[in-house]
Amino acid sequence: MPLIEIKNLEKTFFEEDSSPTYVLRGINLTIDKGEFVAIVGPSGSGKSTLLQILGLLDRPTSGTYTFQGKSVDSYSDDEQAELRNRALGFIFQSFNLLPRVSVLENVKLPLAYSSISPKLWDAQAKKQITAVGLDHRMEHEPAQLSGGERQRVAIARALVINPEIIFADEPTGNLDSASGKNVMNILRRLHEEEGHTVVLITHDKSIARTADRIISIHDGEVVWDGRASDFTE
Amino acid sequence: MTKLYTIKTAYRSIRANKVRSGLTVLGIVIGITAIMLIVSIGQGAQNLILSEIQGMGAETIVVRPGREPKGASDFAQTLFANSLKERELEALRRTENIPDIVSVTPIVFISDSVTYGSAIERPTIYGWSAEFMASMMKVEVEKGTLFNESDIKQSAAVAVIGSKLAGNLFENEDPIGKSIRIKGKNFRVVAVLSPGGSSFFNTENMVIVPYTTAYTYLASAKFYNEIMIKVSSPEAVSRSVQDITMTLRELHDITDPDKDDFYIETQQGTIDQIGTILSVLTAFLSSVVAISLVVGGIGVMNVMLVSVTERTKEIGLRKALGARNRDILMQFLVEAILLTLFGGLIGIFLGILFGYLVSIGLSRSLNVEWVFSFPLQATLIAIGTSAAVGIIFGIYPARQASKKSPIEALRYE
Q1: What is the extent of the structural domain holding B93?
Q2: What backbone phi and psi angles, to 5 degrees, belong to A83?
Q3: Which residues of chain B lie closer than 8 angstroms to A174, CB-CB?
Q4: Which range (A55-64, B63-72, B166-175) has the least confidence?
Q5: Number of domains in chain B
Q6: Of which family is this protein a member (chain B) (predicted)?
Q7: Do B128 and B193 share a structural domain?
Q8: Can you give the pTM of this predicted structure?
């Protein structure tokens, strides 16, 4: 059973006084547990919209989305929120950490919306902060950290509930090359050593090659889907 | 999301913007302070008045002839009503009629002039009992001695006069032992009262004679203007009122209560009346001030709406990480409630502080026993009201926050 299966997925934006924008035009793909997939495409190709739909942050115009064998199309907002909390981890280009709140509190944020007992929150969050090598930054606020460190906090936050899948949207986009490399190494390690499923979105083909599999998108359609080593474009 | 975490998050966000939070709740602070102050002063005034009244005896019942004046036209009837005479006095004195009785004192008012030599004055003339004068009205003697029970029995022609009247009639002479004339009869002055007297009763310009003397020699129509009845305890007042009513109705063959030719007043009635007036006044003033709470609430709503817009990205992030709509709603609602509750608590503190200072100020400047009383009920109401303002004016911004879509919110810069 694939972890994610989408069929004929379409997303169209209807705006007043202009013709509809077809962002996704019939996407079909499956992602299995334990895969490391990169979705590449130029800006405007629809890759971000695809990620938002896969991440249950947005709903498709048509098509079906099956997660762990269950159709999530008919899920209510609350059910989707529960699934996001329990099974999905997000890493954003702009980190999206809460300002004026410590690293520890930031990493604990997903736990606050979970059914996990508050007694376990600290231990679980500290474990993930230590795993990304920031145990000496526990009580610092995001403003006191470098970009690379902030993204590592975001990774710790994404992992704190041990999700089924991690979505990383241009995780290196705001980082210098050394920090970006460091972040990619962590994602690579999470996949190889701990068997995490990672879906990476990027416009940078060299970063995409870090993954095992590449899905290339153009104008809302999949133009290439295969092993990263075979990706030539 | 756990309740504790929600409250912590809200508190943290309020603390992150200390100055703004402070200014936001200023309206609430001022409103609650004003309400607390009004209630506290109202309560103090009530306590002061009640203690003065109770000083005159909560176990006292007054029976008057006629009907309780309900309008201007009723006064004439009351003035000339003569239903309380010797016979009624005797009936009320019997313990088989009124078991809780301690003492019965008739009172006679005389409206006439008093002369000494060529000096003429028109003071208030009362026929009192010795006991009423000494232990109930607690008059204070400057010189001489008050008349006593045997003077009452003998209908002695003696008079106690107020200090101002003494000065007006006698100028520099010593009034004790001198004779004054009332209605052609000589009265020997036995005592002069101290200036002042109790705050409800000005004794400076009055003449007090034994009620027997007043009844026999001075009253043109033979009846008592009031009969003061003292009963054993304040608790006995209401059943004694029943007993008095029954006794007098029986004596006068009255079957229809509308045709009563007497009426009864108790201190409790006066206390109730004053209490009602003061509570109506306090409620009125408080409701005027409550308008300021509405204004304060609108201020809170305004700032909350700005805050929701500012934190659009935070809302999106929280939703992406699993917050449900109601988690976001609760977070912003609790923030608004916490904000107004803080304002309310500061207002309660300031209101009580100012109330206390006012009570000290009034005690000193008016020279009265103005006792500060902690307005517990108002405190509880103030806490409830400020929380309610938070709910009423926080719900709209909180709903706006909860309705934001996660991607729109995450994209917001």
Answers
A1: 82-260
A2: -65, -40
A3: none
A4: B63-72
A5: 2
A6: Belongs to the ABC-4 integral membrane protein family.
A7: yes
A8: 0.73
* Whether B157 and B190 share a structural domain: yes
Q: Is residue B70 part of a domain?
A: no
Asked if A48 has any chain B CB less than 8 Å from its own CB, the reply is no
- Write out the two tokens for B220: 């043109």
Report if residue B35 sits inside a domain. Answer: yes
Residues 6 or more apart whose CB falls under 8 angstroms from that of B140 comprise B193, B194, B196, B197
State whether B245 and B288 are in the same domain. no
Cα B134 to Cα B103, B131, B160, B170, B405, distances in angstroms: 13, 5, 12, 24, 83
Mind telling me how many Å the CA of A60 is from chain B's nearest CA?
13
Q: Do B407 and A58 touch (CB under 8 A)?
A: yes
pLDDT for position B72: 58
**Closest partner residue to A85 among B9, B321, B410, by Cβ?**
B321
**Residue B71: inside a domain:** no
Instruction: Look at B322 and A82 and tell me if their CB atoms are within 8 Å.
Output: yes
Residues of A in contact with B314 (CB under 8 A): 98
Find all residues with CB under 8 Å of A32, minimum gap 6, and list them: A2, A3, A197
| Lowest pLDDT segment from A202-216, B77-91, B247-261 | B77-91
Q: Which of B217, B235, B260 is the last residue of a domain?
A: B260
Per CB-CB distance under 8 Å, the chain A contacts of B9 are 112
Q: Which fold has domain A4-230?
A: Rossmann fold (3.40.50)
Q: What is the pLDDT of residues A169-192, one digit of tens each?
A: 999 988 999 999 999 999 999 999
Q: What is the pLDDT of residue A40?
A: 94
Q: Tokens representing B378?
A: 């108002």
Chain A residue numbers with beta carbons less than 8 Å from the beta carbon of B21 are none
pLDDT in tens, B283-327: 888 888 888 889 999 999 999 999 999 999 999 999 999 999 999
Residues 74-93 of chain A with CB under 8 A from chain B are 77-78, 81-82, 84-86, 90, 92
